[in-house]
Specification:
alpha/beta, Purple Acid Phosphatase, chain A, domain 2, 7-stranded mixed sheet, 6-stranded mixed sheet, 22% strand
Length: 385
Amino acid sequence: MDWLNALILFCLIAGNTTIWVAYVNRTHSLPLSCGILHRLRRLHDIMIIVVPLLLIVLLGLTGPKLLLGGSWSDVSTIWWVAICLCGFGFLGLLVAISRHWFQPPPTQLVSISSKTIDVAHELGHLPVKEGKYERLARLSMNHQFTVELNEKTFQLAALPNELDGLTILHISDWHFMGTIDKEFFEYVAELLSANSVDLVCFSGDLIDSMDCVEWIPDTLGKLSGKYGNYFILGNHDWYQQPEDIRNALHNIGWIDVSSRTLNISLNEITLQLGGDETPWMGSQPEFDSDADFRLLLCHTPDNFKDAQRAGVHLMLAGHNHGGQVQLPIIGPVYSPSKYGTRYASGIFWSEPTLMHVSRGLSGRHPFRFRCLPEVTRITLRAEQP
């Protein structure tokens, strides 16, 4: 066995996998139907299995027999093209790993504290019902039911002194579909209702089964912001019946800010709040340049640059779930974004916009590994309070 060539082939296989994961991530950022996305995913499923087998058999064990001491000079031109592509994929993997480990949080994050709650333990049983993904939800290594309650404080130069101390509950991606029982979401909502906040903001993906719309009053209906509850919808709501979902939220007093902005007067200061559901629904909101502070709810973090151009000061997003699975060393792998895993979750700054990307509370596929579901209470601080 030629161990050096074996290592090189392993890196090429990793590079091939990275290419097809990138393909899935980017196609899933597009406004395509579930059926089309499923068919596109099949190519990924095939290629991450077939290409490694071809590399091992046709390069490693036959042909130039690289695993048996053969020479790279015997590799054909066509194979060199494939090798170069896989090599670029491997370099991309190294970049993603480096970013995951070494990208520091922005200086606007001045404090963070977290508390984890094992909801299944608190309920005394696993809140799972029969459904398409029941076995996935019941896996022993599943972290889906260990919820992280975050407290984050951001200091923003653009925040008027009059808004110093403003609190926002940012929640996202609850994905009601029935496999995870209603009592899980009721328990989390009860926890959140115990602490007062000024604004409650939901950044999309609430419903995966219209049978669960009736859950809304007993879950989100428990939450109340001093200055209101605001929402947008996401791509999974778009797959269902979005207008019926909006009506159900309206009926419990929530305010839809999709494709528009509204002004909230706080301490004689105008906070302008807008909502962006593109590319799946509606249009991007138009912010006023003279607003004292601009806050955007946007389902996908892919619209970060658009928020910067609009002069948004704080953007709250979700959609990517932190990848749901974060591998040791590598970090997140699958993230439905045209930027791959770059904005899988976390806090990002680019003048003049600070973006907070929530990992969300659930998902259509109810499995998490090393990536806890989260809800976040944000406190905003002015630089000169």
